[in-house]
Write a structure and sequence with these properties.
The complex is a heterodimer of chains A (115) and B (110).
Chain A (H helix, E strand, L loop, with lengths): L4 E3 L2 E4 L5 E6 L6 E8 L3 E9 L2 E4 L8 E7 L2 E6 L8 E8 L9 E2 L3 E5 L1
Parallel strand pairs in A: 2-11
Antiparallel strand pairs in A: 1-3, 3-8, 4-5, 4-9, 5-6, 7-8, 9-10, 9-11
Chain B lengths: L3 E2 L5 E4 L4 E7 L7 E6 L6 E6 L3 E5 L2 E6 L4 E6 L8 E8 L5 E3 L3 E6 L1
Parallel strand pairs in B: 2-11
Antiparallel strand pairs in B: 1-3, 3-8, 4-5, 4-9, 6-7, 7-8, 9-10, 9-11
The chains are: A mainly beta (115), B mainly beta (110).
Amino acid sequence: DAGVIQSPRHEVTEMGQEVTLRCKPISGHNSLFWYRQTMMRGLELLIYFNNNVPIDDSGMPEDRFSAKMPNASFSTLKIQPSEPRDSAVYFCASSLGASGANVLTFGAGSRLTVL
Amino acid sequence: QKEVEQNSGPLSVPEGAIASLNCTYSDRVSQSFFWYRQYSGKSPELIMSIYSNGDKEDGRFTAQLNKASQYVSLLIRDSQPSDSATYLCAVEDSNYQLIWGAGTKLIIKP
């Protein structure tokens, strides 16, 4: 398996622009997680899906952020409009189950810079 | 507020020595504990999981868990320069979700 695949790897955009990050989880994994990592706040869970259904989005910072999982092999995280404080590395991870006891496999991450 | 605490470091250890990384957690009902390694510019990867009190060994790595003291540690024997990374402690909370520590940066000096 190719692992969790994220795109783009790097994104530089200007404040106010829409940003879409994409993720393909490992085939057979039924849980998908979106994390954000910054030096100041560390690794933060934004939202997770189980069987394509959003279970907990309490970590989504505000309405500018939205996430979808239209099928078992694809998810998007959208920021509209983007702000400089959104600059971070965004990781997608998948696991066999929603419980944390299942091992998370992370994608390579999408580094977002908002100017 | 459920918390996982780690010393941010950096922790500097000579090559060949034992590196000891520590983590404390606040949620008494936690049952599952994980150590992830993250190289600079890379994503976290799981290196150890532990669920029962005591020690669990895997090669040069040993995870130690003490639920009474709410303490989990990671020992790395015969430290190598390739072990230089940030080590993230993650604890499963009562809602079965992972709470992450801020990570300890480990530097192995040749």
